[in-house]
Amino acid sequence: HDLRAYGLGKHRQVDDYQYGGGAGMVMMAEPLSRCIDDLQKERAYDEVIYMTPDGQRLAQPLANRLSMKENLLLLCGHYKGIDERIRQHYVTMEISIGDFVLSGGELPAVVLVDAIGRLLPGVLNDETSALFDSFQDNLLAPPVYTRPEEFRGWKVPEVLLSGNFKKIEQWRYDQAVRRTKERRPGLLEEE
């Protein structure tokens, strides 16, 4: 939605200086409230999600849970953020994509939409593909290979060419554990 359509005055103002002074503009409560109220008249939302650096970290289990919801309303802050009263009275969940600050919540919202969307039926060509992605079981994905079998002298591991699906599955699991231990050992501690 175009928040400016809910802005105040002839300039359709949606932000103002913060009380108590300090640098940065704050998105005003009234335009946000009017916009959210209008959206909630159209349909019920399972969550009103505010994308903010101080929210809970987006991880695969959260994306999995959110993919089961029917309707999500994503609120993207800008400037210094949004008036705290909107957070207290409308927002049901706050999500961060990492410990850094962007100029707005639009890019984190796109990340969230992609993380959730790929879990929905009909989005991926092979719906089982998402079940074997990194992080679904606190492991990074194993290495993957495609044709040709040999490229510049670099060969595909023999087990992947064997046709023995039990051995292939075990190899993939072992490689996922190895890769996780090397690159993200903290994931193994979260189990």
Explain what the structure shows.
- The chain has 191 residues and is an alpha/beta fold.
- It folds into 2 domains: 3-117, Alpha/beta knot (3-Layer(aba) Sandwich), CATH 3.40.1280.10; 134-189, Orthogonal Bundle (Trp Operon Repressor, Chain A), CATH 1.10.1270.20.
- It is 36% helix and 16% strand.
- It contains 7 helices and 7 strands.
- It has helices spanning 29-42, 60-67, 84-89, 106-117, 158-161, 165-183, 185-189, and strands spanning 15-17, 25-27, 47-57, 72-76, 93-96, 150-151, 154-155.
- The strands form 3 sheets. A 3-stranded parallel beta sheet has the order 4-3-5, covered by helices on one side.
- A hairpin with a 7-residue loop joins strand 1 (15-17) and strand 2 (25-27).
- The longest helix is centred in the last third of the chain and has 19 residues, at 165-183.
- The mean pLDDT is 93.
Beta fraction: 15-25%
**CATH class label of the largest domain:** Alpha Beta
- Apparent shape: elongated
Indicate how many domains the architecture comprises.
2
Structural class, from helix and strand content? alpha/beta
Share of helical residues: 25-40%
Number of helices: 7
Q: Architecture of the largest domain in CATH?
A: 3-Layer(aba) Sandwich
Q: N-to-C terminal Cα separation, in Å?
A: 40 Å
CATH fold type of the largest domain: Alpha/beta knot
SSE topology string: EEHEHEHEHEEHHH
| Biggest sheet architecture | 3 strands, parallel
